[in-house]
Structure formats: C-alpha cells, structure tokens
Fold:
Amino acid sequence: MKVLVLCSGGDAPGMNRFIYSFSRKLEGELFYAKEGFKGLVEGKIFRIDERKIEEAKDEAGTIVLTSRYPEFKEQKFFNKGVKNAKIFDYVIILGGNGSQQGAKRLSENKVNTIFVPATIDNDVLDSSYSIGFDSAVNQCVYVVNNTMPSIQSTLQTCFFEIMGNKSSLLTKTVSNIVNADYTICEEKDIDYKKIGKIIKENLKKEKATLIVIKEKIKNVYEIEKDLEDMGYYVWSQIVGKLQRGGKPTKKELRMADKFADSTIKVIKNDGYSKKILVDKYGKFQILDL
Structure:
C-alpha cells in the first residue's frame, strides 16, 4: 500500500506528531507532497524520512513543508494534482476549511482521500477541535503572562493581537484565560470611550490594562496612536508567528496521536472520502467528506 500525506495552508503545532504517529502504525509505504497541494501539482513527491520525522515528532511546524496554493482551484493545475494523487492508494490532507474543500474535490475525482483538521484557528466546520489549537492558546497565554509584569511596572495599557483569521475562538479563549480587561473581536468593539473608561478606572487602582484583539480588524498600531493622542500610555504586542512556533503541548501530542489512530482505522476498514472530526463531547467521528 502506498499512502501520500500533505499539509496545506498555515502550519500548526502537532502536524509533525501526526505524521510520525501515522507512519508508525501504517502497514505500507508513506510519501509526502512537498509544500502541500503545490507539491502535489508539481510532482514534488518524496518518501518520508523515518529518522527525520522521529526527530521532529515533538516539534512545531511541519518538516514536509506547507503553503497556501490558491492555484489548486484552477482546473489545469487541479488536473495535474489528480493525476499525481491517483498513484497512491490514499491521500491524507492536513489543513483547515480551504484544505477540506480541496480534499472533497479530489475525492469527487476518484481519489481515496482522508481529511484531518489541522489549523490553529480551530475553525473547521463541525469539528470542536483541530490540531494546533491548544498549543496556540498556550503560547498566547505565555506571551501575555510574560509581558504584563513589565506593563504593570509602568501602569501602561497593552494590546495583544491574536491570530485567528475569520474566527474569534482563539482570541476569546485566550482572553478568558488571562482575564483580559477588554476583548475586541469585531470592528464595532473598537469603542474608544469605553476603552478610555476602563483605563481610567484601572489607573485609580494602580493597575495596568490588558486588551486582547483579533487580527485583521484594524491595524493595532493605529489604535495605539489614537489612544496616545487621547493621553494614554499604550503598548502593542503582536503575538503572530509565536502562536505557530511554540512546542506542541502534551494535550496536542495526544490529540495528534488520536487523529492518527482514527486515520489508520479508516484505511483498515477500506474507507475513503472521509473526514475525521471531533464532536462537542471530545469523541472522534469518521464522516463522509
């Protein structure tokens, strides 16, 4: 049996662990498409190096590389991808909603496809968890907790910009854990009057102000300048790639192992065109793409 694995979109901590765990349980040959759908289309397909994946099993990122490849939607590129995919008995795709659509399209063209949610945004439809989320939350909390003591020393206000693309889940989860003074998830939440009131009340208590904001709402440095023009001392921290680059948590490694187990189960049952999701109770489900 020949199986191909690829990672698509943004990298997520736990991707390496999934590939390692899956390779250990697979009764067959495992290959990867370098840089995801891009490598699938261009034929950049190689055998997994067991030694390298074992060395990276507890590290963030993905040693098979990933990329965003919108060209895969174009028929001429897609056709090349299908041709290369059909060499394999199964194609395993790790990624978010866009990657799931690519997986579904492959399956509709008679490619035995299995989709595994892997995105720090945790926004895959119908799944309560995706590989990378717990590690991203943990890293954001680490940044906040290791920044705020300095902010407190000068009684400033600090904005922490959190990734999440169109989803607010990561921002809200981090905000709840660090007990933020204010959370901005939509443009309407940028209420300078309300923010100013919170800052003033905190200053009376000799307390710094902690504000968490989701990315892609408004340039955080513009908000910083607006508040400084109003007389407030403001600092901004863009957590950014730190969310992806932190070591996977113990929970992340366990979840990646479980996703790998479920993927093996699909293959042993001769399943195809499947997606592996987690319901609200934390139970793994194997559903049609």
User: Anything to note?
Assistant: Residues 134-245 form a domain with the Rossmann fold fold (CATH 3.40.50.460).
